């Protein structure tokens, strides 16, 4: 939706601008980004002294700049579709994407009202009850027969889907009530009293929030363009009209304008381009932005609250909403006395970290009871569970506890590990499912066109129940179209797996707000400490992600004890996730510590390439092994033990398997070599920066 300059001249909000070139009558115009000052003086363009002098004193056409002025509906300072990559230091969008925005909504509600939302133990109890009740109902109301053996499973899946949709609709309506409560407090005295009590009475009641909240329901209001539009921001799974209004003003082109154009161009990278492409896809054709369960609206309101309220109001942990001031002194005390004992660090933990440790303890007790009650060889399997968890803890001991326990607190490590275990894994699984479905759709379409050229006599009979014929047909078909399968493997390796997982790990690290990463504290500590805290934090997230993934691979495939042990040993020998996280930290330290202009895509690219190459080799090896298998049933179907479990890991190590292990080790070694090559170079650059800072400080003192 576009609006004229007259309709947006009186607004005073700053947004994201674009860079392009155009030509005005008798002047060459270069468009630059937004300027908040220009919004207030838009009506005074004719009296601009610079513009007047340029037009009077120069016979040649003066070079002018078009400054883009972007405003948004309801007086918001950002768009509802402002994405994850618009501001590299904005964590609200990452937090809004987790748990359908519940974490961020609880924080918003507590910041404004001072009240606590529903406790999480009740929410978890409701979730566990749903997970248990639906399968029980499925077993009671469905009958399993030979004709329909999956009736109970199908009932359970549909029950989970229905419960998830009902929960989404219910939570959306609950959020409406919460926003109405926020509106009442804002219209009364809570927010104004909080602001005035902080010694900043010049900040008035957030009009954007009041306007935004009053549009809940079926009301229509007059927007900035004079058009009525329905307020659908907080409805469940709705389309929100594009809220961006763009206008332009004419300013003189000078050196500062050229510098602004250069700065705007330097802020673009592949991640911002991808998000803008998504925004154009959703907003360009139909003029609407897809809003799912109020996630985008929650992030938009949080950004607005950040602008209106003092930053001290947001110094809270998620979930427990404990203020930083309650446990930061304990963390600093541990650092000051250089306490090297584990107990000393445990006594300084926050409520959230203690809750995470209690949750892990309860989960281990439940798993232990299940193993001794239903599994064969319970002692060995319990040792395997502890070894799976211990593998991640060993990496954290070597990376964090042994060398950097005072650079980043144990409290932060626990929270980051939990974020990787829960949020990174869940996000990656959902995104991988969606992208893999898209990839399979493209593969099927490509194979359909290729099958047309094949001999129909080679197709297996649909009534033939012999699995050998079908497997042999698939083998010959894959051999004829091996290039298509290799391309599909590359898509799965570099896009579905590598790009998704590395991005999920980064944003899970970035969403954790902890006082150890406070900008003021980082200014007071050495650059090496800041860089070490970033590396340890990203490795902690990766260890949590890898630990959860190991549990799924080891205990979710129905393998025997020897097969589970083999999978654990193989995944322990190839710690790809921690290595890729360490490589990511090199780029993030360049961006946040060295400030060399490194962008997010550049920081993640080496890790994405290494992870994708590792997965691509394993996938291609699987395709080649399937094509060249001399006897498919014996190669693909594992023998069954008397107890009904699949036997795995009993085959001899043939030459192809040995070569695959060797190349996998080589890829991991290349990743380690890259990190140990780049890390000392970064350390030298940090030393040079610290020496420059010390010399500048000594000159200033003298």
From TrEMBL:
Keywords: Membrane, Transmembrane, Transmembrane helix
Matching InterPro entries: PrsW
UniProt entry tagged with the keyword Cell cycle: no
Ranges where the record places region Disordered: 30-60
Residue stretches spanning the membrane: 124-145, 151-170, 356-375, 381-399, 420-449, 482-500, 600-627, 658-677
GO terms of molecular function: peptidase activity
Domain of life of the organism encoding this protein: Eukaryota
PANTHER family: PROTEASE PRSW
Protein name: Uncharacterized protein
Gene source species: Amphora coffeiformis
